[in-house]
Design brief:
The complex is a heterodimer of chains A (144) and B (125).
Chain A (H helix, E strand, L loop, with lengths): L2 E2 H7 L5 H11 L7 E3 L2 E4 L1 H15 L4 H9 L3 H12 L7 E5 L11 E2 L2 H8 L4 E5 L1 H8 L4
Antiparallel strand pairs in A: 1-3, 2-3, 4-5, 4-6
Chain B lengths: L11 H22 L5 H15 L3 H10 L1 H8 L7 E5 L7 E5 L2 H7 L4 E5 L8
Antiparallel strand pairs in B: 1-2, 1-3
Classes of the chains: A alpha+beta (144), B alpha+beta (125).
Chain lengths: 144, 125
């Protein structure tokens, strides 16, 4: 499923599609359109999931520069693969769990595909955990 | 740094392996569905469809394979039509529509209509 800027703006709690475009450019948020039709950008599901994560982080009161730094810690390749598995029904959950101390240089992708794995990781790590799979599923079904 | 014995998260290696497995499975599906097409064109079709539709390789291959004969028939008219649109319908799984304009096809591409632009397959003649 493809997503429009308006979908990402709503998921990311931006005031408008224009604000989404402006803030994405200003803070180098990691949203990458896969296509452009006329003047309208089209995004993949992985970008929608990143927008959901951004929306949650903003809900915690984080400023966009901090949100941008945390989103950069998420391995896009791993999240893309996890979302593909989710779409194919091979996994039923997708979480991003951002750590204050681990990043991609530590081979920490911040992507989890089971609640058990998240719980086990939380035994050793402090993480900000956001479920992106269920929100994606609800959006695909047209109820979010 | 906090030590965790084994990665509980999806590592980059695991992600790469899973993506490669899914892509292989998808290409095998396409090879069975479009046996007369060269492998390069099937590969281009899969890449273009995934990018346009925002779906996984396996899902894209399934959609294509289910409509392979109609896609092949439309591709034989390449030059006269710009591509095909696979549209969901309440009465049938998908309705295949040949579209003469690539810009119209791209605009109609949505979560309930899947556009295949034949110009993206030219690398795989």
């Amino acid at each position: 499923m493809i997503f429009l800027s308006a979908d990402l703006a709503m998921a990311g709690r931006f005031a408008s599609t224009e604000a989404f475009a402006t803030e994405t450019s200003k803070h180098a948020l990691p949203f990458r359109p896969v296509a452009k039709v006329g003047t309208s950008n089209r995004f993949a599901a992985v970008d929608y999931c990143l927008a959901v994560a951004a929306g949650h982080l903003r809900g915690f009161g984080m400023a966009l520069p901090a949100v941008a730094r945390l989103l950069e810690r998420i391995d896009r390749t791993a999240l893309t693969t996890a979302v593909s598995q989710f779409q194919d029904g091979e996994v039923s959950e997708v979480y991003v769990g951002m750590s204050a101390i681990l990043d991609q240089e530590d081979d920490f992708s911040a992507v989890f595909t089971s609640r058990t794995a998240v719980a086990d990781a939380l035994a050793d790590l402090d993480l900000i955990v956001i479920s992106v799979g269920d929100r994606l599923e609800r959006r695909v079904k047209g109820i979010a | 740094m906090t030590a965790v014995s084994a990665p509980l998260w999806m590592t980059r290696d695991a992600a790469d392996n899973l993506a490669a497995q899914a892509r292989r499975a998808a290409l095998e599906t396409l090879a069975a569905a479009l046996p007369a097409w060269p492998a390069e064109r099937r590969d281009a079709l899969l890449r273009a469809s995934q990018a346009a539709w925002g779906v996984s390789a396996v899902t894209a291959a399934g959609l294509i394979a289910g409509n392979a004969s109609a896609i092949t028939a439309a591709y034989s008219l390449k030059g006269k039509v710009a591509g095909v649109l696979l549209m969901t319908s309440p009465d049938a799984p998908l309705v295949v529509v040949a579209v003469s304009s690539a810009s119209v096809g791209a605009r109609l591409n949505a979560h309930d209509a899947y556009w295949i632009d034949f110009s993206h397959l030219e690398a795989g003649k």
